[in-house]
Design goal:
Structural class: mainly alpha
Helix content: 55-70%
Radius of gyration: 20 Å
Number of strands: 0
Strand content: under 5%
Distance between the termini: 39 Å
Number of domains: 1
Largest sheet: none
Shape: elongated
Amino acid sequence: MSANQHAPYYFVPEPSKWPLFGSIAAVFLTFGASGTVNQQAAGPWLLLVGFLMLFYTLYLVCQRSS
């Protein structure tokens, strides 16, 4: 490496709880969708919880980025 070249720059984001929260929302969505399709009583409720968690996560992440 010559003296004029710089080492490559790597961006490491700050730790966040939102990827974990979004993953939990995806689990609720998965179980809720499969329960709804199979006409389980808790299926629509799990689906609703999953969508609410997902929209809450997206809202807060977009709010923080602006």
